[in-house]
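User: Structure tokens for this complex, please. No commentary.
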Amino acid sequence: MLELAGVSRDFAGMQAVDHVDLAVAPGEVVCLLGPSGCGKTTTLRIAAGLEAADSGEVRIGGKVVDGGGAFVPPERRRVGLVFQDYALFPHLTVLDNVAFGLPAGLDRAEKARALLSRVNLADRATDHPHKLSGGEQQRVALARALAPSPLLMLLDEPFSGLNFRLRDRIGEESLSLLRAAGTATLMVTHDSDEAMRLADRIAVMRAGRIVQVGRPLDLYDRPVDLFVAEFFSEINKIETVVEGGVVDTGLGKLPASGLANGTSVIVAIRPEAIRPGGSEPAQVAAVHPMGAYALVKLKHPVRDIRYLLRVEHGAAPEFSAKVGARVGVSLDPRGCFVFASEGDASGHAAVTRRR
Amino acid sequence: MTSLADTGLQVAKRRARLDGWTVAALLVAALAMLPVAVVAASIFVPSGDAWSHLAGTVLVDYVVNTLWLVAGVAALTFIVGVSTAWLVTMCAFPGRRILEWALVLPLAMPAYAVAYTYAEVLDYSGSVQSWLRATFGWGRGDYWFPEVRSVPGAVLMLGLVLYPYVYMLARAAFLSQSVCLLEISRTLGSGPWHTFLRVGLPMARPAIVTGIVLALMETIGDYGVVQHFSVSTFSTGIFRTWYGLGNLTAATQLAALLLGVVFLLLAIERLGRGGAVYHHTTTRYRPLPAFVLRGARAWGAIAACVLPLLLGFLVPAGLLAAWAAQTAPRVVDDGFWRDALNSVTVAALAAVLAVAVALLLAFAARLRPGPVTTWATRLSTLGYAVPGAVVAVGVMIPFGWFDNAVDSWMRDHVGISTGLLLSGTLAAMLFCYVVRFLAISFNAVESGMSKITPNMDRAARALGAGPWAALRRIHAPLLRGSLLTAAVLVFVDTMKELPATLILRPFNFDTLAIRTYELASDERLADASTYALSIVLFGLLPVVLLSAAIARSRPGHS
Amino acid sequence: MRGVPLRRFAGFAVVASALIAAGPAAAQGPAPGEVNVYSARQEALIKPQLDAFAKATGIRVNLITAGEDAIIERMRAEARNSPADVLLTVDVARLIRATDAGLLKPIRSEELEKAIPSQYREKDGRWFALGLRARVFYYNPEKVNPAELSTYEALADPKWRGRVCMRSSSATYNQSLLASLIAHKGAVAAEAWARGIVANMARPPMGGDRDQISGVASGQCDIGVANTYYFVQMQNGTDAEKAAAGKVKPFFPAQPGGGAHVNVSGGGVATNAPNAANAQKLLEFLASPEAQKIYAEVVFEYPVRAGVAVAPQLQAIGTLNPDTLELSLLAAHQAETIRIFDRVGWK
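Assistant:
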């Protein structure tokens, strides 16, 4: 439904969006994920027609809306837009907000009312926005954006204004509504948990480029680089060098397939890949109980390496017994990734491709 | 935490119904209302058969002409003020940077001076029509030419110098609008023009209405223009009844009637707003995207902005300058600089006072919201709609009464005479200015105050700052822009003010406006132009500063 | 001087006194004292006489000017503590209005009684006329034969339809003219006259006196009505004014049984005058040959004092034969004139 092909945009010499290719299918939810300033919002605005691309092409519903000399203004793109702060019109009632994008006609109010019912706000139709709670405002904003039956829904951090309990529920309700309507949805967020939970596919952006696109678990299990790996969880980073086709993590050796001996690498290990029980010795350095689990910091008995892992509440009591206790762990290689570093001593910032 | 603080404030509110703030605000408001109340009280005094005469002859004329004037000025200031504000704020076209501040320049022009100059040029015997007759050999009745001394002429004159109120307030509102709202509207299928009509304009409505109300109050209170154009309005009617019929009571009754109408207008606009609240629902700002205008559109935008500037400032100021160049050496005497100093000094004092009073009232209304403070502040700003001379009478009568009462008491009990303590002093004059221009300063301060979230007050209170400390350390610095705006507007209006100064001034006290009037009333317009021009020039600098300050006022602007 | 020191401390005393002190320099000691003048005549037109007075007597003159009714209202509000010593106006009706309000007190002065003919002063000495102004016609010699011109009344004749330039009835001078017609011919005839004038107007009433003369000069109308001194001032004014004045001719019309309509400028001593003796001195000075000469030559009014010459420029436009109507009648009928004007639609 939405296709971005080689879309670029720069602001005053800064490449905000750099050759972005991305497609969103009808009924699909794609999350643009990245840190602030990565260009994800600009990409969204280009899709909406609020910004023009410098080069590349934007197609919506197969029609070119930007590129090759054509530019369709936002009001004729059939896109819906929801901002982080909802941007409800303060001078209009809830019903009038929802009806704003509907063509004038007898059934206009009826349609708006039906939409309000779908977001369970039929009883707030005559209120002004400032009387609604944050969650209610979000739902009105969604209903308003849905009203003209857009082909493409663009959500800019739509749930980050809500408290975390509401966020899950409203996020799921909203997206199921969109999926049911068969709307293609592009959602911008910096919250990897949210993206993981809500998206069909995630596109991770960094410095204007899309680094990796894929289903959430693909990205989690097969990150293309340290940046992507790091985005979805805390991670243990161990700097080392390939020797004899393997890397030594201090908790056992991992194959460094494709990397020549002598290459400086960073080994990324997800905390859950370090399992209590096993033959690799370590020493407890600190314990932070979190309720359902405890965050445990381990120390390599000899080398100056520290590891973070999670220990489920009640399991492996020796890990939380006392600081300094000697314990044994094992590594699950599925949660370990080896990336060549580019000779940068600081490590993570300059890490590039795997293999 | 928030709820605790809230509860604390509410308890304080409930306990202290009539605390220092409310009392201070009510006292100040009562004082500011005094002259207007004196005028309004006249309706209880019998005024002979003046009313039956007025009703049977000219009253309809007064009402009809005043309504046309009000409707015309409202329409003109709305169209010119809002369209120019939108163009310079939202569009990019050549010259926009200059027009941005230049569009407020007509504010420095006294309406009466604009009226004099246009009448002088456009009258039958003026240079334009004389040239036409000489060139085409026309005589009387051979051609049609718009009559400048007419209701439409007066509308044009007043509209040209008053649209900056609407322009400034609308521009400030557009600048503070969240672009998100406009963008949402675009994605919902409204093009730029419809977005302006459906979102930009209604969002700015309170600001625009405030601007129009200010312009209309000044229109209703104007005497200079309508008198010079021989248009019979309430305002000329008041003076005709006073001077001609010699019936001051009936004249003030006319003024009281006028006040009733103004009050009704204000009430209607308040009702019309209904439940809508114009707090900003979004706090995100991004640089305003300028619609880049090119070709014919750019020329159209330039024309739309230059025309009011040309007619409201450049042409009249140019004509004044041309006449001044001929007459200045003859009319500028040793007194010129003294008069200029007087003008600037009283205008500056009036500005400071009017802003201080406005700040007190606005802060009290914020601290103790409720019908009492709301109505007290509304009523205390009505003086702007009353002709200056009538307000001056409203000052003279109670002050004279007070002075004489004190004097009598002192003579009887202490054996000394205190004479006139207030009457005929600068204090009385400044008091009159504050009464007259409080509406301007109050509106500016109040709108600034409404943008400060109440959480700021609560945070200050929680940190141990009392109301005074909060006002001094939180509100005053945050309001700097609004206070400056208020001060400049009052300054400029006081520079131009005439009738109250004329009646209330101390001995041997002249201002530029008085010198202008004296020469103009002797029908020496060319001679008066030097003084009129100097009013403009002395008012210009603060106006330009103000405009620059507005440009910097956008949230997030660094 | 009562109360003055205290008053200075009221309100914005520091600034106030600084600004007040910035007035005319006054180096005199307390001996000659001062005199406070409330004037409805513009400063430029009264200052020369007052300066001459100060120079001659050493008495310091304090002045405020304002509209006549406003300044009377101020005196009334200030009541017995009013600093006003002398009230000067440019309309006899206002002098009488102030008299009726008890704001002016009778003074006996041989000097004044000798200088000013009795019809130009109130019999008890509450007010004295100091200058005369006549309201006359100006016509376009190309369109009007002076033989057609006679009285004010005749101007209401239908033959002048669409040919007359008139000023607004809010102008005191027109009120005074109509009041004189009421006094001469009665209210009914006066109303008919006003109705006739309205019918004869070339355009709605507008502008000042000079504008009526300019209207005739530019061809907008054939005849206009204005006071004499404006015409003389135009003859000595800007190039455009000189040109306009050159195109019209003045004509001195007559009232039935009298001459041209005249109003007066004049003054009286305030009832509560703190410096009453100086006030009387000032009035006497203003009636002196020296001051009367200034009235004649600076303001172009006709001096009231016999023996003082009319300014040559004014003399050149014609000889005044003033209406002999008792001046107090102008005041008596003034309110009535507004009612007539309103009824006949003379704006």
